[in-house]
Amino acid sequence: KGKTVITIHDLAYMRYPETTSERIYKHHSRWVPYSARKCHRIIADSEQTKRDIVDLLQIPESKIDVIYLAADEKMKPVPETDVKPILQKYHLPERYLLFVGTLEPRKNLIGLLKAYRIMKQNCDYTEKLVIIGAKGWKYDPVFDWVERHNMQNDVIFTGFIEDQDLVAIYNGATVFVMPSLYEGFGLPILEAMNCGIPVIGSNVSSIPEVIGDAGILVAPDDHEAWAVHMHKLLVDESLRRTYSMKSLERSKRFSWQKTAYETKLVYDKMMNA
Q1: Residue 269 pLDDT greater than 90, yes or no
Q2: Quick check: pTM over 0.90?
């Protein structure tokens, strides 16, 4: 009976229904539109999510506030002495490309694997691709693709890893990649940037809002371009240093203190309406 505020992280189930599970689709289709209509204000994680709420749910723009997320403060550069034991714990190499996220179709992992394979075919690389994340849904094609192309020795799947170890794994990465078809925010990108890691992300949905000009943006389906940009960052130490500094500088724009303050303003606005 009281006033309500909800947060909508993304509308991926509407934009890309084929990439979600039947359970999630049924649940979200029933409750997200209902909640959006009934609540007094909506918080969106990004301008992209706000546009989707307006376009897909027919909610007035005036009802929506955009408040960006932030990375945990523990996500920061750490000494190499803190990194090595964690890499050894998970049997990870000294140099690797890194992806972090749930294993599900929207993350476009097969697209990433295709780009990685193109890069390896064109150049003699020893860097492995490390994929961190729990199994979500419709993930079997990813493992099938790796096996079919005999890349079991090149691609490492770790499963889910707790944050206290993930900090070191971010820091150990040479390059971070996020080839998603759609993100409501894309928190792993910001976590990597907080650690000073050069990032390559898709040029779609909210990802450009997070990366800005501090990383490289590539169309998610342009596998050749992904291969080229991954190659450039892997071989050019000066370019990596440049993007590492840009990552650290860009990440300063996001903080949980700022998120909390802006969230309080939304509640104040609602209560005083």
Answers
A1: no
A2: yes
